[in-house]
Amino acid sequence: MQDSVSSPASPASPATSALRPLDAALASAAGLVAVRHPGVRPPQDVRQTCALLFAVAPVYVLSAYLTWDRLDSGVPDGFVAGLWALLAVTVLVAAFLAAVAVPVRRGAPALWRSAQAASVVGLGAALAALYCAARLASTPLLVAGLLTALAAVVVCIALWSSEVRRWCS
Fold first, then answer.
1. Cα angle vertex 156, ends 152, 159, to 5°?
2. Do 152 and 116 meet the contact criterion of CB atoms below 8 Å apart?
3. How far apart are CA 4 and CA 22, in angstroms?
4. Where does the chain have alpha helices with state H?
5. Whose CA, among 63, 87, 98, 105, lies 20 to 30 Å from 71?
6. How far apart are alpha carbons 166 and 35 in whole angstroms?
């Protein structure tokens, strides 16, 4: 008769046991950006919000360009730091809103919330552009600030609509 010897279970190595919490955290993070409704077409409000997030990016880029143009044409020293901050925030908001358009359409709740936060930051950037335009008496920057403020308000309304909220929650 053959004797079978069971091998003792090897204890978990310290490297693999240290990765278990990380794996759990990554799985939780993946759940926040996962597709919520596979195979289901999003409602029309959600599709329009996705298109709107792509459409407002050029408005923010225009505002950033006109801010940079104003910096290039020479401004008093007291305005330089504020205009550079406005330029950076405007570019970041434009890039972020365009980047989260598809995850919002897919129903990712964490990215939808971050898109809401970015839209509020974009509204603040629009107000800062209006303030800088008024202090510098710059008509092109004023027009860009008004367009950006209008776009930011529309995006905020779209991201907080009940259909988008229902889809992403």
1. 135
2. no
3. 38
4. 14-32, 44-72, 77-99, 101-106, 109-136, 139-159, 162-168
5. 98
6. 14
Q: Which residue has the tokens 């990016």?
A: 57
Provide the 10 A C-beta neighbour count for residue 168.
25
Mean of the pLDDT values across residues 92-99?
93
DSSP-derived secondary structure for 146-165: HHHHHHHHHHHHHHTSHHHH
Give dist(CA 162, CA 56) in Å, integer.
21
Quick check: 85 and 124 in contact, CB under 8 A? no
**Which amino acid type is present at position 24?**
A
Which residue's entry shows tokens 């050029």? Answer: 58
Instruction: Give the number of other CB atoms < 10 A from CB of residue 68.
Output: 16
Determine the straight-line distance between the first and last CA of the chain, rounded to whole angstroms.
63
| Cα gap 167→148, rounded to integer Å | 26
pTM greater than the 0.70 cutoff: yes
Distance CA 83, CA 101 (A): 27
pLDDT in tens, 37-74: 667 788 888 889 889 999 999 999 999 999 999 888 88
